[in-house]
């Protein structure tokens, strides 16, 4: 490797020490609570200088440092200081540590960067330094003209990092020429601790650069690598020592302006400032007179002039405060007490909000003692978020009602409209829990991203094209040990980062927004033990496709799916997210993986190093206890798992790739007409690189796709990273239509024009759902689910049965071609590109003047009127609107696609109520008999007629009613149209909760055979409502109207809690909340 030579030194005489009062007078600029992260103390009275030191400085005692700092602050108070061990003391930190003690006695906050003998320092000595405030070690390879072999430097870096990685918050401070960052890029990425880049990382101003870089100082070798390392959270750039980087002292080093402007623009969260007081000399004097006993003076520096320039160059008050206060507080762990090293910012966008993972471990210990048994990992995370008021008594899985306090709410635009309208109805000014809204569902896909737009609101904190909600959450907000809820059923995607993430209806989300706890029956825990490693074409998607086939679309109901075992260690964070995401298709409450180092790597690649470090300090608790018991265990051997293709029409019908050819022939499935890659399930960097490796093989062989390929990147960040890695170029060369970074076809926002409705055809996707008509509104489209790489392989043949693993294709030259297994990267080698500009922050000032105006004539938005409270009487002689047969998902109850635009307008969207449900007595959809007129008509029209005539009605349904998305419209619409109850064999969890929130009765047949007895012409009375109580069944009185049969009774069960019964009585949960708030 080469060698590191000394940076050019400013020529000129050294000066004696000058206080700030000796410099040009300017207004003090440091805000209250600011941090000076680079200062030295030289005081031979406290301890001697080291033999063989490079120079002997003038005295600069602690008292002068304090006076200097006082004169720089706006309030005249000493700020926060970071003392750096200077070269004359070498590895003897006696003076430094004594200064830390003195500062502590003066109640001045201080941290320190030490210099140690890495080979000989003891752990005990390091711990003592830590307790006094040390937070890192310094490696200075830029002083005194020394040259260091890069191989040796890389070894020293790793050795130093390995000695301190167990110490919370410790870093390596490195002073090297800027070009070294490029040479050591990979080595620094691999370090277990971050690096502080001293003095702008050695970047030079024009006055010190060779002429070739004068026009573009940002192109100096190594600067882009330094910026990239900072973006990945591996480097913290210290703006200090400008006089070491520039000769232009006359203009207060203005040639550094483009460097600092670039850093403030590109990495505002990774910057700190240091004065470099007392400004040691440039070395010129020691060259003229090498006598070590001659004291070397300090430079005379216009500190206030430099600060004035910096404030102008960083561009905004927000970045200035990050530089001076927020960032150093985070990096040097000022907000993490000595007892709480696991503290981190909740996200890059919420530096003022922190999470202390040490509290998580304390809560887990309390719960473990209380329950007196080992805990599964999901139990640890879930129970650690119990509301304080409910922390007594035992917890019984499947029975105990939990009250939980999530840390975050995420909403997507389709569900957020109604949720926010409900929140507005509560009359609250701001949410009690951090809440984000993501524009991803309402962007219609057809011709490609340049032609696509969102018909929805653009007032979301995450604007259109920023990315899919679950990908954005994974990149920016998810972390091991945390808990969140989201108004989308695939919220469990964040379980790939070790987080409890639960999909809920809008009403549940509104409760949490308003500061109320989330109520949930303590889930059972379904353990999935993974062994072996994935090989060849097998991918994480195949794990969940296989599991869905083993337990069915309702097999996870009431349970958390918790993965464990040695097989988890070989999966990437995004791969684990894929598995958790599609766990929603099993009906599970959520899915989760235990901590693995891949999660910390993902956090760092997404510029969240403080969270990575916090998680690592509590990693021992981020897994199941030894001896923890699961309610059921399923084992999957990844080594023998082959690719699965699931479908059509249900996500739990899995066929191994090797048997798919036979299944196509046996079922006469139609030919392949399109391939679609992306969605929140499979749009990661790893997914796309594996798919691109397959595409590249085909391109090299001269092959072209036989069917259209549509690609939906998961986020703007991933998209930009894929572009820089050359992946998008490969996809475009293969003819892919690049859709907007949004849900697109996966949620039904696909304006498909190449296939007439009713035409049988097949498409293969890497999505998560394949219900009839979901993607393209064509019920004849057979949708199959597989991994991105299998989708990519299959599009090069229009024969649905083609197996890219074994089948051959003929190239244009007549040769036979076969694919080899795909390859990919779990993370981009240089981390993810920045896309923070897509984030739109909420207003921070007084919001009392903000009004939300909804036009009475709007066809998209409508204010909600409260539902009427329960009358206090039983429901008598209810009509049966429809008796449904088989699968009745939320897509059947309230279809998506073109109806998305009415998600904020209850009256309009109610016109699609149950239009996809299959009539059990006629096998038709949206065609039922009006029992009052005797005429046949559509379901919503009939419901409106019953309502207008004052007749309550019910729905009779099959198993797992309401399966699929979390859309609460599927509960709101029947309630709005006059429905009073849904009586089914069983319910999907989220939909059952949504019905309760809207004041409807979700009831289940105690004897499922009663479903077969009841006819849609019967009248139903629901008896015993006055005595409605948890665990107490109700009675149905069924009166036949088309036969002479006698009325008969059926018992129906429910899962209402005491509080949910109050929802019913009040007319809805929102009514009850409004009553409490008034």
Automatic annotation (TrEMBL):
Domain Amidohydrolase-related: 36-333
Region described as Disordered: spans on this chain: 446-465
Any GO BP annotation: tricarboxylic acid cycle
Gene3D superfamilies: Aconitase, Domain 2, Aconitase, domain 3, Aconitase, domain 4, Metal-dependent hydrolases
Pfam families noted in UniProt: Aconitase, Aconitase_C, Amidohydro_2
Localization (cell): Mitochondrion
PANTHER family named in the record: ACONITATE HYDRATASE B (PTHR43160), HOMOCITRATE DEHYDRATASE, MITOCHONDRIAL (PTHR43160:SF2)
Protein name: Aconitate hydratase
